[in-house]
Design brief:
Layout (H helix, E strand, L loop, with lengths): L9 H13 L8 H8 L3 H13 L3 E4 L3 E4 L1 H23 L9 H7 L5 H10 L35 E6 L5 H10 L6 E7 L6 E5 L6 E4 L1 H4 L3 E4 L4
Antiparallel strand pairs: 1-2, 3-4, 3-7, 4-5, 5-6
Helix pairs in contact: 1-2, 1-4, 2-3, 4-5, 4-6
Length: 229
Amino acid sequence: MSAPVPRLSPSVEDYLKAVFALTRRDEAAATSALAESLGVQPSSVTGMVKRLAGDGLLEHVPYRGVSLTDRGRHEALRILRRHRVLETYLTERLGFAWDDVHDEAERLEHAASDRLIEAMADALGDPSHDPHGAPIPTASGEIEPMDFPSLAQCVPGERVTVRAVPDEHGDELRAMEARGLRPGVRVTIQEWGHGDGPVTIRVGGDGAPTTTVSVDLARRILVAQGDEP
């Protein structure tokens, strides 16, 4: 009888999840971008990358950065599933606001057992997306592609549907909530500001008032073209 596979440490899981987020379009993740994402020094990233490459979780691409191996991707999707199931359970069953679940899920995702995560998913009816519109990986390690343009790639007059919003910062989510910017909402781009000025949009139907979002936020809101739900 083979020995059980040991659980990865929280720091290793965080690294794999960060690399996955930075390489969703099949590009290698630069170590500088990885350091910024994790809030650590580049020298710390270099050491961890060497260690994870030696463990068969990462592949170092000379002069480009790092990418996940098949095993690394499997582990990244496992921890991502935990995070997004937890966010969904906290909002739908425990009444947490969508701007207050990211940090809680970050803490719990490393400690919860696989049995507990799957029980939560089953109680929720095996949801496909978290409260912010991000797809939840399946228990077998599959995930819906998110090859959608960002709001920043749209042009004035274009009508789109919000698919997913960033979940890392509660203040941003509260601001989006106040503007009605949630997954499934239809948005019409009104105009672009000069330079890096804000984007003016209309949230909802033709009679809805206009509002603005920063270019930085617009780059991180994913949308579907037209009226696709």
